[in-house]
Amino acid sequence: MIIPYLARPYVNIYVPNTNSVPIWLSDNVQLFVKRLFMKQVVPQPIYVSETIDYMKVTKIPQISLMGMSNCGKSSLINSLIHNVPLEHPLQKHMSNAKMLNMPTYAPVSDKPGRTRHLFTFNLDNSLSIVDLPGYGFAKGQFKTLNTWNKLIEKYLSRATNLKRILSLVDSRKGITELDIELWEMLKSYKIPFHVIFTKVDMLTSVELHNLNGTAIELLRGYSSCVFNYLNCTSSKNMLGILELKCTIAHLVHEERCKNNILNN
């Protein structure tokens, strides 16, 4: 097993012991991070499998978060777009119905599989972030036709400006067969993905080193579509959130360069 040196909350999959600073962590990118993630969160329609056909095609770069139920997707989104760890303070005092009518932050639930909706959070006209329903209800979920599967397939067929999937893995549970099924599906769709470990504050240093080593060995088999860095995060103490923002901001900046949109 490869045991990478993890002095920072990210590891290069191919050169785990490198001390070089990634291009996405440059000073210019960090300046762009401040501008990008300070933009207003624009509410978007919420979709389920029965209404996903009405989803409009976005014209701005889009990333989507996928992971097992209760892996920390919603908390991570709130950390990214609001700098709020875990749940939004207002959520404690709101019913589910009210939360669904105020989609400027991601609703957090302790019950796996409770969130079956597709939430979209646009940062003005610069970036679209999609919170997809969690998986983990049954083995082979990516291969069988069910409500969850239909929603995901319809979304992927319509997300023409999808630039990257953030594949979230609960570090306490490690990489599961369902996570690998997801990577295989994304590989077949030729969709770029980036693996993010969540809740790493719950692991010891040795456990995290071992987990990263296992992930590196697996991910090298997806070189055609996997991002070459593995990021570690904790929404509880905001560990690794800045670095993750930088990977996203660099992606958005590259898209702007391609389209000659550099004014904001």
Condensed summary:
Residues 59-254 form the EngB-type G domain. This protein has helices at residues 27-36, 73-82, 96-100, 147-158, 177-189, 205-219, 241-258; strands spanning 10-12, 41-43, 62-67, 119-123, 127-131, 162-170, 193-198, 229-232.
Descriptive notes:
The chain has 264 residues and is α/β, with parallel strands linked by helices. It has one domain: 3-Layer(aba) Sandwich (Rossmann fold). The protein is 31% helix and 16% strand. The protein has seven helices and eight strands; from the N terminus they run E-H-E-E-H-H-E-E-H-E-H-E-H-E-H. The protein has helices at residues 27-36, 73-82, 96-100, 147-158, 177-189, 205-219, 241-258; strands at 10-12, 41-43, 62-67, 119-123, 127-131, 162-170, 193-198, 229-232. It has an eight-stranded mixed beta sheet with strand order 1-8-7-6-3-5-4-2, with helices on both faces. Helix 1 (27-36) crosses helix 7. The longest helix is centred in the last third of the chain and has 18 residues, at 241-258.
